[in-house]
Structure formats: structure tokens, C-alpha cells
Write a structure and sequence with these properties.
By secondary structure, this protein is α+β, with helices and mostly antiparallel strands. Helices cover 59% and strands 16% of the residues.
Length: 545
């Protein structure tokens, strides 16, 4: 019975089912881990006051959030080793206490309390601050205490948030646009000088345009100074932190303040989604360990789209030539072997090639030919979005070629012959019949290309990705899409925050959250491509896919 079962190959069916099940479990476990670890960062945890025995018969009070648990070993091999349970408490205020986290032995904790007035204060610098609001001095010098201080504190934080948004808009948008125009005038003058075509009329025109820009710039600087003065004069809060110390906290240093111990379940859910939105829509700060990751999201999606627009035409054209036009011989066989081997080349090799060929050769040549007025500062002769996209296109090109060739080989020869018999030319047959029927396979190649390109980090570190990009590659300044600009990328952001951060414990949840977001983006892009592929399959059911 067993031999018959083995001869019929049923054991391979079970092995395949087992492998598929294990793969699904591994993927589900990975995503579950990323979600669980990452989403913890956004949930408003209660703030505890721990009464801890200090070892001298006294007590000290720690204020903060329980971050995680662990244990330490005590004793030696002769006397015996005991395991002391510990918990890691996030106490914040590292400029005051020297570190954001402190290990506490659980047996030394005498009492734990959760006072309703304990606050979590998120700041632009130095991370969170945990404590009790004692009083508030407003812009008129009036000192407010009690519940009124809490209400005024939230109101002033909201006012500062509005002022801060206006200030950022002036700095990044309006002043950025003026700086772009000023640089354009400088380059135009330099261009005319190189051509020996600079006349007095041009000098006068450029000077007049520069004068207008300088006047606009002066007005914007005046507006910025007014906003800064308003922000700095909003008031100062007095906060009692760990150890009973009272610190002065200017309102313009505060991003938000919450009372998690007072929140109900619905309020915590609302704050949870509010923090997620901030994470997705704001810029990073504090060495990327605080704030959001919007520039990294934008850079990743932009890079993948540009890569797709480059790799698809080249990959399809190469596959069409190899399958439909090239005569089978030694050269074609060697090309196919080379394409298959390129799919296994380490990605860092593509990064080195992109740096050496695209940046140092092609980019330098473009600068010499079209951007001499900007030299010695390189325009395309340095890493940027275009070279990163081309490097990823080269990296994923073998996948698209192989997948497209496979799709073309599945189109029955009778369909080609029927089209030719009806009077269509070979190019018309390819364009109107063969390629549409092979489109599901082409979309499969696109899916595989997107999945690999979105997660690559090593080559991008050499050809265009940086730790922090001050502006987006798409803005309102001509030519609107700046292919020479450096970008942020989710994959590199994960590497930077996870391995280069000065505060690993604080950054750890962000690593999980960013990794989950990267997986989610890849899945979303793939689902979109799969939906298109399925529609194409329904349209061309005659092809056995």
C-alpha cells in the first residue's frame, strides 16, 4: 500500500502542501511580528510612578512607561546564580537624566501608581518628557495653575502648531522657491559668460530680477521673524519631573501633550490613529528616531514608478527581439545565459556599476555637455534619483526579460500564422495579437521586479539614497521633477534607524513600523499589478497561463 502510494507520487503532493503551509505561516508570522511590535509605538501607554528601593534603605520615584521586561544574572558558579527579573522603563528627559531608559529590578519596586495628572510631553528635541504640569506662565506674564493651566497648555500648543506650520511653509516652499529662482539667475549669467554673450542689457535685466527676488526674500524673513517672536512669546510651562525637579519648558519646544492615564478606550484609539497619521505625513527629526517618514515613503514610491517606466519597455523589447527576431545560434544562447546569470548577481555589484558608469561616466558627460555653468558643482555627476532608478532597472531587467520571453513562447504559433495569413505584417501581429496575449506574463515580470526593487538597499546607498533629504524630488519649481536630487528610501531608513541610531531602544519600534509599511507598500503595488494581470488573463483565456 505504501509502495503504491509512493509510486503514484502522492508523497510529493503532501510535501508540496507542507512546504506551502510552512511558507504561509512564516510570512504570516513575520507580518504579525511587524504589526505587533510596530503598532505598540503608537498606542498611548499609561504613565506609572514607581516607588523603588534604592539599596540604602530609602526610596526613589521613577516616572515613565514600561518598555519591556528582561532579567539579569546575579551570583557566581560557586554560590549559585539567581535570575533577577527586570523591567526597562522609558523615563524620557535624556538631557536631564542622561538616558531615555532605566533598568529597574522588579523585586525592588515597592509600589506602582498611575496618577491621572501624569503627562507625556512630546518635544521637538530630546524626545519625550514625563511629569506633572505645575503651572503655566502665558504671554502676558500671568501664572496659571490647576485645571485652567491644563486647558491653557493645550490651547497654546495648538496655537504654536499653527504658527509652526506657517513657518515651515515659508522656509520650505516660499523661500525654497526664491532660492531656486536666485540659483537660476546665477546659472543663466554664468551660461551667458561662457558663451561670451553677456551684454549690458542682460546684466541690467538679471540685476533687476535679483532685486525683486531679494525684496520678496526680505519680506519673507520679516514674516518668519514675526512668527518666531510670536512662537517664543506664547509662554512657559513648569513641569515636575522624576526626582521632584521642576523644569522650565517653553511652549515653542512642545509638539503635543497628552494625559494617557485619564484617557478612556475610545480616546486611546483616537490618539492611536492620530499618531499613525503623524508618522505617515510628517518629516523625521531627532536623527530619524522621532517624527514621521513621509519623505521616505514619497522617495520609495517615486523611485519604484520611475524604475518601472524604464525597465518595462527595455525588458519587453529585448525579450521580443530574442524570441521573435534573433536567429538561434551561439550568440543568442550566450545572451540568454548571460541574462539568466545576471539575475543572480549580488545587488551591491549593480550599485558599484551604477556609481562607476551612470554617475562618474554618463553623469559627468551630461554635466560637461549641458551644465557647464554649474561646474565644479555636479548636477548629474553625483548620485541622484535618476541614477538610482536606472540602477534598479538594470537590476530587475533580467526578471522582466525572462518572464516576457516565457509569455511569448506560450502564444500558439497558429495565432501568429493566422494573423499573417489575413494580411497583417509581422510588427502588426506582434503589436495587436502576440503582445496582448503575452501581457499576463509581462505583468508577472513587473510584479517580480517591483517586489525586488522596492526592498533593495545596498545599491541605493551608492547611487542616490541619503539619511535625510531636505526637500522632495517633485515640487512646484521647474522642471517640477528633479531627477538629479537625492532621496530618502524606506529600506535605507530601516537600516539607518536600526543600526546607526544613537538611541537604539527608542528607535526599535520605529524599525518595526517602517518595515511593516515597506511590506505594505510592496503588497499594495503587487496587488495593483496582479489585478491588472487577472483582467488581462480573463480577456485572453485562450492562453494557458
Amino acid at each position: 500500500m505504501l509502495n503504491k502510494w509512493m509510486k503514484e507520487g502522492n508523497h510529493w503532493v503532501w510535501f508540496n502542501a507542507m512546504a506551502l503551509t510552512l511558507s504561509l505561516l512564516a510570512v504570516t508570522s513575520l507580518i504579525g511580528l511587524l504589526v505587533f511590535k510596530g503598532m505598540q509605538h503608537f498606542w498611548p501607554k499609561d504613565v506609572a510612578v514607581y516607588s523603588v528601593q534604592d539599596g540604602k534603605g530609602g526610596q526613589v520615584k521613577l516616572i515613565g512607561e514600561q518598555h519591556r521586561t528582561g532579567e539579569r544574572l546575579e551570583g557566581d558558579a560557586q554560590a549559585g546564580v539567581s535570575h533577577i527579573p527586570q523591567m526597562l522603563v522609558k523615563v524620557g528627559g535624556r538631557e536631564i537624566f542622561g538616558a531615555d531608559f532605566k533598568w529597574v529590578d522588579e523585586p525592588a519596586v515597592l509600589a506602582t501608581d498611575y496618577p491621572k495628572d501624569m503627562m507625556v510631553i512630546e518635544r521637538y528635541e530630546w524626545g519625550n518628557l514625563y511629569g506633572r504640569l505645575v503651572s503655566l506662565t502665558d504671554s502676558d506674564g500671568k501664572k496659571i495653575t490647576g485645571d485652567a493651566a491644563q486647558d491653557s497648555f493645550q490651547s497654546l500648543i495648538a496655537q504654536h502648531g499653527s504658527l509652526y506650520e506657517k513657518l515651515v511653509d515659508i522656509q520650505k516652499s516660499k523661500i525654497g522657491s526664491i532660492n531656486h529662482s536666485v540659483e537660476g539667475l546665477r546659472l543663466e549669467r554664468r551660461r551667458l559668460e561662457l558663451k561670451n554673450a553677456l551684454t549690458d542689457v542682460d546684466i541690467a535685466r538679471l540685476a533687476e530680477e535679483r532685486k525683486v527676488l531679494d525684496q520678496k526674500y526680505a519680506l519673507l524673513l520679516a514674516d518668519m521673524e514675526k512668527l518666531k517672536l510670536l512662537s517664543e512669546s506664547l509662554g512657559v510651562a513648569e513641569v515636575e519631573v522624576m526626582g521632584g525637579k521642576v523644569v522650565q519648558l517653553p511652549i515653542n519646544k512642545v509638539v503635543a501633550a497628552t494625559l494617557p492615564n485619564e484617557m478612556g478606550a475610545f480616546e486611546k484609539v483616537g490618539e492611536f490613529f492620530h499618531k499613525i497619521w503623524e508618522f505617515l505625513s510628517t518629516d523625521p527629526r531627532e536623527a530619524n528616531t522621532e517624527g514621521g517618514i513621509f519623505p521616505a515613503i514619497f522617495g520609495t514610491v517615486t523611485l519604484v514608478f520611475i524604475m518601472t517606466f524604464v525597465v518595462m519597455p527595455f525588458g519587453v523589447v529585448a525579450a521580443v527581439y530574442l524570441r521573435e527576431y534573433a536567429k538561434d545560434g551561439f550568440v543568442v544562447r550566450m545572451v540568454r545565459v548571460s541574462v539568466n546569470n545576471l539575475a543572480g548577481v549580488p545587488s551591491i555589484v549593480y550599485g558599484v556599476f551604477g556609481l562607476g558608469f551612470f554617475v562618474y561616466i554618463v553623469g559627468h558627460g551630461i554635466d560637461q555637455a549641458f551644465y557647464q555653468e554649474a561646474l565644479p558643482s555636479p548636477t548629474f555627476g553625483t548620485s541622484g534619483l535618476l541614477w538610482a532608478a536606472l540602477t534598479l532597472a538594470l537590476l530587475t531587467l533580467p526578471v522582466v526579460i525572462v518572464s516576457t520571453e516565457e509569455g511569448l513562447s506560450r502564444v500558439p504559433r497558429a495565432i501568429r500564422e493566422g494573423s499573417l495569413a489575413l494580411g497583417a505584417t509581422k510588427i502588426e501581429t506582434l503589436w495587436r495579437t502576440v503582445l496582448p496575449m503575452a501581457s499576463p506574463a509581462i505583468m508577472t515580470g513587473l510584479i517580480l521586479a517591483i517586489a525586488r526593487a522596492a526592498g533593495e538597499v545596498a545599491p541605493l546607498m551608492l547611487v542616490g539614497v541619503v539619511k535625510l533629504a531636505p526637500s522632495l524630488p517633485i515640487d512646484g519649481n521647474t522642471p517640477y521633477i528633479h531627477l538629479d536630487q537625492k532621496i530618502m528610501h524606506l529600506g535605507f531608513h530601516i537600516h539607518d534607524v536600526g543600526f546607526q541610531s544613537p538611541n537604539i531602544e527608542a528607535a526599535q519600534p520605529l524599525v518595526y513600523a517602517t518595515a511593516f509599511l515597506l511590506v505594505l507598500i510592496v503588497i499594495s503595488l503587487n496587488i495593483s499589478a496582479i489585478a491588472i494581470r487577472n483582467r488581462l488573463r480573463e480577456r485572453f483565456k485562450s492562453i494557458d497561463n
